[in-house]
Amino acid sequence: MHLGAQKLALKQKEAKLAAAFPKGSRCQKCLEYGHWSYECQGKRKYLHRSSRTQVLKKNLNKISAKK
């Protein structure tokens, strides 16, 4: 087996193991670590995000303030 192919196979094996054990993964529902979203028993947390328009306006104001 070619050396590059061995490295690729090892990397793929490690990726599969990492996917099987969500130790470092963050749940997209409750934002806690250690489990997947479909396993989640917690409630969905509200995460406020600025709209894209607000972000663009803020960035434009920064740019115009620099000039």
From TrEMBL:
Q: Which InterPro entries match?
A: ZCCHC10 (IPR039715), Znf_CCHC_sf (IPR036875)
Q: Which GO terms describe its molecular function?
A: nucleic acid binding; zinc ion binding
Where on the tree of life does the source sit, at the highest rank?
Eukaryota
Q: Give a single Pfam family match.
A: zf-CCHC_3
Q: What is this protein called?
A: Zinc finger CCHC domain-containing protein 10
Q: From which organism does this entry originate?
A: Anopheles farauti
